[in-house]
Amino acid sequence: MASLAHSHHHAGRRHPGAARHGQRGRGGRAGHNPLAAPVLVFAAVCVTATLYVAYVLWPRWPDVPVALDAPSLPISIAGVAFNIEPAAIRIPLQRRAGSLTRVDLAYLWPSLTPPDPTVKIINGVAVDPNERLFAVIQVDDGVMPLAERVQSIYPRYLTPEPQPGPDGLTLRPFRNDTPYQGEELVFDQSAPEHFMARCSRKGVINSGTCLLERKIGDADITFRFPRSWLKDWKSVAAGIDKLMTRLHPN
Questions:
Q1: Which residues pair with 250 in a beta bridge?
Q2: Exposure winner among 7, 88, 133, 225, fewest CB in 10 A?
Q3: Which distant-in-sequence residues (6+ apart) come within 8 Å of 195 by Cβ?
Q4: Strand partners, 135
């Protein structure tokens, strides 16, 4: 009886050890592998790099070109919204909606309708660029606006005396010994902020070219037209106002 009790007591003493051995076994199986995290990070980097290379090298179809007779495109330049007819956009890559840094435009004069850019010859004669009003809308490049240049830069380069221009305009030629030789300021004396252009006095295929600047927010708009149009400058000013309203209805 005493032997049985001793045996039972000895077995009871072995049981806690067996439990501890089982706990150590389970603890060993659940232990942390110090190499697991670096391997996972390396694998993630490899997968990301592979996906990026595949995206760059994967062949993609080019954007579907916009039809010339499509409705006006919503285009944002320098955060300013414009509505522009596709046919008026001279460069095919610019014929898309969205945000652009620059867009080059052309309109027939005096109708202000977009020309057909595919037509280069009419009745056997090359299209006359002097029958078009050109415009460039672009992000403000930091150049001082024309009105400010007139006040702070141009006076030192202009001739001292103004000259009369066509239909009531005033001309201020630049001196020949200046960087602006061969050009002159042309403006409406009563409202120079409405009509002021910088014009060359001689052109290659015309009598010269005039540049008239407008600004909306951080977007610069520069209109280009033949100097010969100055004889009807009031119609030019009205046409530009009308086009500005069409391009930027707001």
A1: none
A2: 7
A3: 169, 187, 188, 212, 233, 236, 237
A4: 105, 223
**How high is the mean pLDDT of the chain?**
83
Q: For residue range 176-221, what is the model confidence (pLDDT) as tens digits?
A: 999 999 999 999 999 999 999 999 998 766 789 999 999 999 999 9
Contacts 24+ apart (CB under 8 A), 49-54: none
pLDDT digits (tens, 9 = 90+) for 34-90: 666 766 777 777 777 666 555 444 544 445 668 888 999 999 999 999 999 999 999
Q: Which among 110, 89, 102, 47 is positioned nearest to 238, based on CA atoms? A: 110
Cα–Cα distance, 189 to 187 (Å, whole number): 6
pLDDT at 5: 41
> Do 75 and 204 contact (CB within 8 A), yes or no?
no
Spatial CA neighbour of 201 closest among 233, 228, 162, 179: 228
* 137 vs 43: CA distance, rounded Å: 48
Please state, in angstroms and rounded to a whole number, the distance separating the CA atoms of residues 98 and 27: 61
Which amino acid makes up residue 195? F
Which two structure tokens, joined as six digits, stand for 111? Answer: 């109708």
Interatomic CA distance for residues 95 and 113, integer angstroms: 17
174: helix, strand or coil: strand
Give the position of tokens 């190499």: 35
